[in-house]
Amino acid sequence: MIPLHNTEERYGSVAMFFHWVIMLLFLILVVLGLTMTNMEDSAEKWQLYSLHKSFGLTLALLVVLRIFWRFTNPVPLLPETLKAYEKFLAHAVHIGLYGIMLIMPISGVIDSYAGGYKMDFFGLGLLPKAEKRSEWGESVALMVHVYGSYLFYGLFFLHIAGVIKHHFILKDNTLRRMLPVSLKKS
Ligand code: HEM
Ligand code: HEM
């Protein structure tokens, strides 16, 4: 049975839950974001916008809980065999990913609000529409949101490259300790 809390050797079930659910939400949000912005104006397009905002706000809530959990739990140690620059890179990518997890929903909410649009959350209107549009606010937030998504693709690539290197080349427990499986190699 995997404990709820992290230990120095592995992630606990709560951290794993946050990691994999948030990964799935990122995937859904990127697919929705790219699809909806490339569609012709139609009812379906705006339904996808509404779904994108609903999933994005769900993610924002989970990220706040995840960061709280991160700071109240031990962080599994990186293998001692890693060189200093590899440890630095792993930490930098993780910090970057946490940053993106915050920047994307915040810029998305500002973009939508400043544009004078409804902030839907699965059919519940969460925030009232802005009285006045702010073109300046909308364009800055949109720029952050779009460039943020590019930064995410880069960090995601580095993250996955790291996981592949650890699992298939170094053959250590890095991937296994984020999965609900035994840490012993079979
Ligand atoms: C981690 C969370 C999020 C991710 C990964 C994400 C990703 C994306 C992507 C990839 C796009 C397409 C950008 C492009 O044109 O290339 C997009 C567009 C957009 N997102 Fe998000 N998004 C997130 C959260 C949110 C939230 C919480 C909101 C609002 C509540 C939001 C509102 C929007 C809007 C309004 C657009 C369309 C901008 C336009 O009209 O061009 N997003 N998002
Ligand atoms: C197929 C996709 C993914 C795989 C296979 C994967 C795998 C992993 C693994 C194995 C770890 C543990 C690293 C260690 O033990 O030091 C990890 C940590 C982490 N992953 Fe992912 N990941 C994926 C997607 C993502 C995505 C989309 C995000 C962010 C949006 C993300 C953010 C993080 C963060 C921030 C950590 C560090 C957790 C902490 O120590 O607090 N991952 N990931």
TrEMBL record:
Record-linked InterPro entries: Cyt_b561_bac/Ni-Hgenase (IPR011577), Cytochrome_b561_oxidase (IPR052168), Di-haem_cyt_TM (IPR016174)
Family: Belongs to the cytochrome b561 family.
GO MF term set: electron transfer activity; heme binding; metal ion binding
Top-level taxon of the source organism: Bacteria
Keyword Metal-binding in record: yes
Gene3D superfamilies in the cross-refs: Transmembrane di-heme cytochromes, Chain C (1.20.950.20)
Location in the cell: Cell membrane
Protein name per Swiss-Prot or TrEMBL: Cytochrome B561
Cofactor(s) the record lists: heme b
Gene Ontology CC: plasma membrane
